[in-house]
Amino acid sequence: MKSLRLIKILCIAFLSLLCLTACSFPMASLMDKITDEEGELVSAKSEEIIACLTENNKEGLSELFSVSARSSKTFQDELDAVFGFFSSEVYLRSQAEALAGGSASIENGKKTRWEVSPEITYIEVLQKAEDSDELLNRYYSVRYHWVIEDDEHPDRKGITYLEVSLLNTERSASIGSE
Known about the structure:
By secondary structure, this protein is an alpha+beta fold. The protein contains 4 helices and 7 strands. The chain has one domain (2-176): Nuclear Transport Factor 2, Chain: A (Roll). Strands 1, 2, 3, 4, 5, 6 and 7 form a 7-stranded antiparallel sheet that branches. The longest helix has 53 residues, at 2-54.
């Protein structure tokens, strides 16, 4: 009698454990899918930003910004300030984070609002010294806020804020508002 009761308890415990772990697999799979998708998008956008900065492509960087950011009265001055601040004779290498903090709203399985705040940890470039033709290494970092989706406010889609900082100094230039 005791052995039959023990078998029942073990069966219930085993089935409960099986149900609990089986329910977590779809959630883990969904999280992996979201993380992979976000990582690919962020990596691609960071590469676009790096290319625009290192190739001195103001128009290209401008096009990455949202319509609302570009319509700001100070946008062109801020864009000019970033390109005046970021100086690159030769691009060497960079490192960007693939994942970023952010938020999303999902309705009926569709993302209606999705925004992230990634960071390009560093961009290493060679820059001419002010008083000679010598090339010096410079390291910049970039933080930006990117609205990937916004069904209610489509004019916010795009980068809304970007800050370029010279590493190990407090010098920076930015476009938009956080």
